[in-house]
Structure formats: structure tokens, C-alpha cells
Amino acid sequence: MKITELLQIDTILINLNATSKLEVIDELVDKLASAGRLQDKIRFKEEILKREAQSTTGIGEGIAIPHAKTIAVKTPAICFGKSEAGINYDALDGQPSHLFFMIAASENANNLHLETLSRLSTFLMDETFRAKLLSAKTAEDVVCIIDEKEKQVEEKLDTDTEMNSLKKVLAVTACPTGIAHTYMAADALKSKAKEMGIDIKVETNGSTGVKNKLTDLEIRNAVAIIVAADKKVDMERFKGKVVIEVPVSAGIRKPEELLHRAISQDAPIYNGNDESKKLEKQASIGIYKHLMNGVSNMLPFVVGGGILIALAFAFGGIHAEGTIASTLMKIGGGTGAFFFIVPVLAGFIASSIADRPGFAPGMVGGYLAAQAGAGFLGGLIAGFLAGYIVVLLKKVFSLLPEQLEGIKPVLLYPLFGIMLTGLIMILVINDPVVFLNKSLTNWLNGLTGTNAILLGVLLGGMMAVDMGGPINKAAFTFGLAAIAANNFSPHAAVMAGGMVPPLGIALATTFFKGKFTSEERKSGFTNYIMGASFITEGAIPFAAADPVRVIVSCIIGSSLAGALSMVFGITLPAPHGGIFVIPLVNHPLLYLLAILIGSAVTAVILGIWKKPIKV
């Protein structure tokens, strides 16, 4: 819709007689009424004044835009008035106002009308456009000036779209677990690129591996590459290209900004050949990213092994040789999947820091930590220790003659990396960490009453703070450590807290439909499945759209669920599985009740707190 479909000659006052704010409002309202755009002039003026009482619509730069959306409007319209002398309209910059646009929006104004009004506000920020309006002598001049501006903007948009379509932007998305964030970021980038007329291809590094892999030819022809990732991805292929590196959450929340940066090549050239710079970059990526690389590769062992252990408990007789229970326990437990958890965690943390040469020292350090009883904390230390030892070795060995380059990865890095990591773990790290783990175990086992409830509140709430981010993963890792220490209560609170956000949002979209768009209601149904499967990330799109209301509502519900889990004395031997492992807890009905109460509280708070969708 064109602006001049709402602003026509019969609603234009080329020379206002008014000398005050109230007189301007009266004169513009009278003009709209005489042009037949209002069905209740008095009520419309009341709504205009009510809006002015909230805050002035004198936006500065000589402009005022009084407006109201009300049933007093018969036909949506804009009334324009001009005062060359200027009128004191209580403008934000304290200057007189010369250009007045009174917007009359009907109660059921559609998006097309609202977008048109928004476009007018954008035009008014153009100083040249304002100057032309000030110099207009007739109502016809005003209409021509606005039509000309719209035509210029449309032509520029067509040109930009044509230019953008010739430029290929590539992207890579990856999150630690590869379940939700990876694909949400990919969808957000593709959707926004389609709107902007930009040709894009997105590679996803998810839990099922790399999909839609970028080819060498595509990389060579790309104008820029966006890497939205919270774990290590293959970067060497991008050397010599403009690369924008951001967390995966930026891909979800800021796709337009990233695409603008890509098109304008607002990022440094990635130099994969400079080994010293590469090492510095890897070492400074951040603890969280290295940790998440370890956690994401450890998670399949946790999920698969944990559910097998839970099934073994369900069958019973885990200590009787030859039974189904004992067999499942061997596969999933300490001689099977769970045996690899700490070494894999350490190995992939180290490889995130130092590339492939860090993997073997990290694995060995993690194994030594697990054998000594240093657990997850020992594995974390081993991973970072091994990674930075290999980074140091690379710098030291860079001084060796070039003829020895070939033996570094096959002899020098593994030999000295494993030896130094092993010596430090055995002689320095393991004993203090074992003591700390035993102290933590005793503390957890001694938690009763109020202390246990507070722990449940804390762990449950942490799962909802960033829904898959570092705080969420810190709570999850704590729960795993507790399971390793044979205390199954904390992780029950963790899982309850992690299931509440998507389930609570799903309930809210079902019972408070007027507070959500049709797209959000469709996503809400999907959240039933994600919540039941213990995939907290399903709540992220809702949190991104309305962060304060959604996150606070989810934290309250998740904290309550975690607290109730502790009150009911729930124990959970499986670290993952959601609703599918609830039958394996000691009090399944009470555990289900805790999750449902937390989800219902989140749904009610969110449903009441959110504002209704304006139609």
C-alpha cells in the first residue's frame, strides 16, 4: 500500500492557522472529520490526547506525529499539516515543530496499514525529504513529493536485491549437542536471506553429522562465510576468505545483522596458513567453546549408556551374572559406554584447543583421571591441561629444523604430550581432585530438608536460564557428576527443570491462544514433544522473541519442579531420556507430578503476563 492511499489531497493542510499544540490537534482532527474519515470526532480527539498524556509525539527534527488506533476511525487515514513559523509541540529536542502527520488507525487496522505508517516514519528521518515538504506550496506538491520518495526507495530496493542475489553467502551452524540450536540458527539465516534477496547455503554440524556440506567451489566463489558455532568446526577450508565468527545464538537472534555484515564484507580475512596466529586464536577461543566441544562428543555416551543403565535397574538383578540386567549394565556402565565418558570429554576438549595432536594426550589424561577416581572434574582439568601443553609444544618445536616437520605429529607431539600430561595428572592433579570429589559426595549425601530443596531450586532454575547455554550445561554436568558419585537425586532435579520450559510454553500456547501468533501456536505443539524428550532448546525461539517474560516464567516453573523433585526424594539413575525414563525412577508418579506442576506454573505466569496479540 502506498502512503498516498492514506494521505490524500482532502486531508492536507498546507498552511496551519494553529499557534499551540492543542490548536494543531483540533485543526487536524477537524480536517479528518470533514473529509469523512472519522465516525466519532470527539472520541478520536480524546484518544489523541490520551496518547499525548503518555509521552509527547513531537519526535524532534521539526516533526510531530500525533496518532491513535480506535473504533472512532471510520477509514484509516493520515492528515498532513505544515507550519512555516513553527509551533511549540513539546518536542523531544525542545525545538518548534513544522511538519505534522496525524495518523488515524482503525481498531482493526491490518498489517498493511501499519507497515505503510512505519515506512512514512522512516522517510521522515531523511533531511532532504523533510526540506522538500517544508517548501511544498500546494497539497498536490505534498502528494508528488511522497510518491517520488516511495518510487526512489522501491528502485533502490530492487537494485539492492539484484546485487545481493549475485552474491553467494555461506554459513556454518553448530552447537554442542547438535539438536536444536544448530538447526534454529540455520533456519533463521535462510529465512532472513530469502527476505533480503540473498543467495545463501548453510552447512549444519548437528548430532547426526555434517549436512549440506560446503564444496570447495562454493567456498571459492563466496563473498563471505558466517560461522555461527559453539563448538569446533573445520576452519582451514576458509583461509583467504572473509569469515564472520559468532556464537550459534547470534545466528538465531541476529540473522539480519550477520547477513548485512557478510554482504558488506565487514569482517577480517581468515588466514589459515599462519600457524602462530592460528594457535593464538585457538587458545583464546574461550573456555566455554572448548568445554562444549568435549560435552557434545561425550553426550552420545551419556545418553546411550545412561538409558541402558536405567533399563538394567528396571529389569533388576544387575549383580547376577548372565541376566539381561547384568548384560545391559556391562554395555552401558563402567565397562561399556560410561567407561569412555571422561576420556572422550578430555580428548575432545584438548583437540578443540590444539587440533588433532591434542586428542591422544587428552584421552590419556582423561583415562588417568577416571581410573584414579577424579571423575568429571579430573577429566575437565586433563582436557585443558593436555590441550595447552600441546599448544606450548607446537611453539617450542617450531624452532626445530624444517626437515623434522614430518615427525612432529607422529612422534614428538604424542610422545611429549602424553608424557607431560600423564606426569602432571598422576603427581599433581589426581589426589587433590579425588579428595574434592569425596568431599562433594559426602556433602550431597548429607543434604536433607531445606538444603536439598534449595539445591533443587538452584539446579532446576539453572536449566531454564539460557536453555542449552553454559549455565544450563553447568547444571547438567553437575548432575552427571552426582550420578558418577552414586547420588541420583540432583540429576532428577536437573531433568525436571530442563523439561519444564518447552512443556510450559506448549501449555501456554494451548490455553492462552490469544497471547500467541498462529506460528507460535504451531511451534508450541512441537514443544510438547521436545519437552517430553528433555530438549530444553525448544523454548529458545519464544525466549528470543520475548526474553524477559519467557525466561522469568520458565525459571520460576523449573525451580519449582527441581524443588519438588528433591522434596519427593526422587532418584534418577539415567542422565537423559525425558519422559521415556520416568518409569525407571523410584517414584514415577510423584516425579511426573513435579514436572507437570512446574510446567503449569510456567504456563499460567506466561499466559497472564504476555500481552494479547493485536489483530
Write the layout of secondary structure elements.
Elements: E1 12-13, H1 21-34, H2 41-54, E2 58-60, E3 63-64, E4 67-70, E5 77-87, E6 97-106, H3 111-123, H4 127-135, H5 139-165, E7 168-174, H6 181-196, E8 199-206, E9 209-211, H7 216-221, E10 224-229, E11 243-246, H8 248-253, H9 255-263, H10 275-283, H11 287-315, H12 324-332, H13 341-354, H14 359-372, H15 375-397, H16 408-445, H17 449-465, H18 470-484, H19 489-511, H20 518-532, H21 540-545, H22 547-567, H23 588-609
Parallel strand pairs: 1-5, 3-6, 4-6, 7-8, 7-10, 10-11
Antiparallel strand pairs: 2-3, 5-6, 8-9
Helix pairs in contact: 1-2, 6-9, 11-12, 11-13, 13-14, 13-15, 14-15, 14-16, 15-16, 17-18, 17-19, 17-22, 18-19, 19-20, 19-22, 19-23, 22-23
Question: What labels would you give this structure?
Answer:
5-stranded mixed sheet, alpha/beta, elongated, 6-stranded mixed sheet, 615 residues, 11 strands, 23 helices
